[in-house]
Write a structure and sequence with these properties.
- The model is unreliable at 468-492 (pLDDT under 50).
- The chain is 34% helix and 18% strand.
- Strands 19-20-17-16-15-18-21 form a 7-stranded mixed β-sheet. The chain has a 6-stranded parallel β-sheet with strand order 2-1-3-4-5-6, sandwiched between helices. Strands 7-10-11 form a 3-stranded parallel β-sheet, sandwiched between helices.
- The protein is globular.
- Helix 12 runs parallel beside helix 13 (357-380).
- The chain is α/β, with parallel strands linked by helices and 492 residues long.
């Protein structure tokens, strides 16, 4: 008779921005190091972890709805555990166990490293464990990580934020900015490249203020240049910068470092100086457009994306027209557009002159129409051009039906291509294609593949998929290269 006990299985469900996705990769690494195994997609996990976001509207309703669905499941499964972490846990620590008493563990943004211990303690003591720290004790990147992609990775340069935007609750939940030392970041980048990673996205709530903590205001541009010296690292991206602190040394580093991609996510939020002041965004329209002009002067091919909020309290038609004017002048390659909604705990939620919902909706529709028109025009300019793509996995929703594959251009545009002449091409490999068609949000290359370059990243993908997988779904649109576009206007 064997005494072997099957390992406990886990599932991590992620909501919110890239910081949360990256935190989930660390949670996954911690659980695997503690002996847990990822549950199969059609199997109920023994441990379900929710990594929450407090920025999205109705985030709490969504969480409690999901927890409610699991209550009867847990009642039928002795030993099953549920954990809730992330920004909503940091904010609503007392509410979660009151509204969902079947939750076993509640942990915050500063103590993700405690999860395995808290799960064990909850199991032994047979009662919920709530542990929320007010400040960071161990920088998250020192924790083990189970990365979702074999060829692309996030690397945190900082956590927290020193800004006080009136619509945003992130600073109060993730705390003041804490910077990692450049040598520590580069050591992580080099270790990832040694594993086969060829694309890195540097991640921070505000990457431009990186270095303030240790007194070097040019630390971020120096870090970009240092990434240029890492052999085998083909693509470097970063998110999110802040227009108030975006300096010319960063533009120069982007333009002069060959592996730093000419794609830039620059959150606008509003084009109106009056609204920007009410948002406590420490820049104005002229400064923002000046940055765009300088980026384009240094990198004419740069693809610039943004975040825009419609209907902030007090926004008039004139204010909204100012936003449309910036969109016309900036000619964004893409924009994440949001209707303003009250976020409990933010100063803006208490402001007078909340804009009626029907007015916000009408403005939002006009904005989306203009953004789509411009992104389509910008994409049409690329028809006939040749692009080198990093082949992605699972980026195209219809790839199975069309028999196309998908990849990311250097400027991060999504391109669907027909793999004629590219037999055996793998995610992480590079292909050269000619663009034949443009849509507002993607490009298509339906001709033959012009060149294929097999890479160490493709080798790494092949090695990972050949081995038994313990990957976990992070609620992402696929396993492709990390998207530099935040899903919520949480920062920047």
């Amino acid at each position: 008779m064997s005494n072997h006990v099957a390992p406990r299985t886990y599932e991590v469900r992620t909501y919110g921005c890239q910081m949360n996705v990256h935190d989930s990769e660390r949670l996954t690494g911690l659980l695997e190091e503690a002996g847990y195994v990822a549950a199969a997609t059609d199997e109920q996990a023994d441990v379900v972890v929710f990594n929450t976001c407090a920025v999205r509207e109705n985030a709490d309703n969504r969480l409690y709805g999901n927890l409610g669905h699991l209550a009867p499941v847990k009642a039928q499964r002795p030993g099953m555990q549920i954990a809730v972490g992330g920004c909503l846990a940091q904010k609503d620590r007392a509410t979660i166990t009151r509204r969902a008493p079947w939750v076993d563990v509640v942990f915050g943004t500063h103590n993700i490293g405690s999860l395995p211990v808290l799960l064990e303690r909850a199991r032994v003591q047979q009662e919920a464990q709530v542990e929320i720290l007010e400040s960071l004790e161990v920088f998250p990147s020192t924790l083990p990580t189970r990365r979702e992609s074999a060829y692309a990775a996030w690397v945190s340069v900082s956590v927290g934020c020193n800004n006080t935007c009136t619509f945003c609750i992130v600073p109060s939940l993730r705390g003041k900015e804490k910077d990692r030392r450049p040598g520590e970041i580069l050591a992580e980048v080099e270790a990832l490249v040694a594993e086969g990673v060829t694309e890195i996205t540097l991640l921070g709530q505000n990457v431009n203020s990186y270095g303030v903590e240790f007194g070097d205001r040019q630390a971020f541009s120096k870090l970009l240049r240092a990434c240029g010296d890492v052999a085998g690292l083909e693509r470097v991206r970063f998110t999110s910068p802040h227009p108030a602190e975006f300096t010319d040394d960063v533009i120069e580093a982007m333009a002069q470092t060959p592996n730093v991609m000419h794609s830039l996510h620059m959150p606008l939020q509003s084009g109106s100086d009056r609204i920007l002041k009410a948002m406590r965004r420490s820049y104005r329209q002229a400064r923002y457009l000046g940055i765009i002009d300088r980026v384009r002067a240094a990198m004419p091919d740069a693809a610039i994306t943004t975040d825009i909020i419609v209907g902030f309290p007090g926004e008039t038609e004139e204010d909204f027209e100012a936003t449309l004017d910036v969109v016309r002048q900036a000619r964004f390659a893409g924009a994440f557009t949001f209707q303003y909604s009250k976020r409990p705990g933010t100063p803006a939620a208490e402001l007078p002159d909340q804009v009626p919902a029907e007015v916000v909706q009408e403005r939002y529709e006009r904005l989306v129409t203009l953004v789509n028109q411009i992104t389509w025009e910008e994409n049409q300019r690329l028809v006939g051009s040749r692009l080198e793509l990093m082949v992605a996995e699972g980026e195209g929703r219809k790839d199975g039906a069309t028999h196309r594959m998908s990849g990311r251009a250097p400027d991060n545009r999504l391109v669907h291509f027909t793999p004629d002449g590219a037999e055996g091409v793998r995610p992480g490999d590079m292909v050269t294609v000619e663009v034949t068609y443009a849509a507002p949000h993607h490009l298509v290359a339906d001709g033959p593949v012009l060149a294929v370059r097999r890479t160490r990243a493709g080798d790494a993908w092949e090695g990972r998929t050949a081995a038994p997988s313990s990957a976990v779904g992070l609620g992402m649109p696929g396993l492709g290269a990390p998207e530099p576009l935040p899903e919520a206007p949480a920062c920047g």
